[in-house]
Amino acid sequence: MEINWVLVATAFFVGALVGLTGVGAGAVMTPTLVGFFGVGLPVAIATDLIFATVTKLIGASFHHRQGSINWALAKRLWLGSIPGTFLGVAMVVFVVTKEQTSWLLWPLVAIVLVTAITLGRRALTASGDRVTGSGPKSLPNWTAPAGGFGIGSAVALTSVGAGALGMALLVRLSPRDVNARELVGTDLVHAIPIALIAGGAYGFAGFVSWPLLIAMLMGSLPGVILGSLIAGKLSARILNGGLAMILFAVVIIVVSRATG
User: Fold this and answer.
1) What is the pTM assigned to this prediction?
2) Which of 168, 215, 220 is nearest to 53 (CA)?
């Protein structure tokens, strides 16, 4: 198997982002595979979901050792996100075929754009290693499952959403001045079963490229370990702002290539 070292380096960068911020496995990797490496959209989505499962599992294990995961909140999100994932998978795997998936590009672009805006807002509101949450008492009990349902559906359809959209929801559900490391750890562990369910279904349907996945994991695994080890030591404002700008650029490139 010939290894694309540019792809390996890209996956290392994405893995580091995942460990640092909880974001990147879908929001950066899928549009990058489509826009820069010429991978077909359904294959990119399917392969990225398996990639995200493994990468986030490694990252979450480091955060668990550091005690930075809110398991009770993750379980509340799973009540909605896991059924939402099954619905999204059914729409793609059982309703459409490989020849009828070009429409998925536009939900992908839309969710990446929302992700970029969300990260931009986080960059403006972050303060040191603390994030200003809304406080769980101000929201109804169904907010977590309902928000999780939307995230699960989005991830199954596009592989994007568990990171930044999940983080945005966690900020809303968490106490004020919650530690950013706890948000990252909870976001990572919440995403694992979603990506696993969706990726497994896509793999069963024959969409996953295993050689592509191997090259991606070669880069992402050391990247996510590095990112997880230094998470919380870098400015959340700089990380989120930089990632937002990257995602805006990715959206522009993907749209220009799709319409050019």
Assistant:
1) 0.82
2) 220
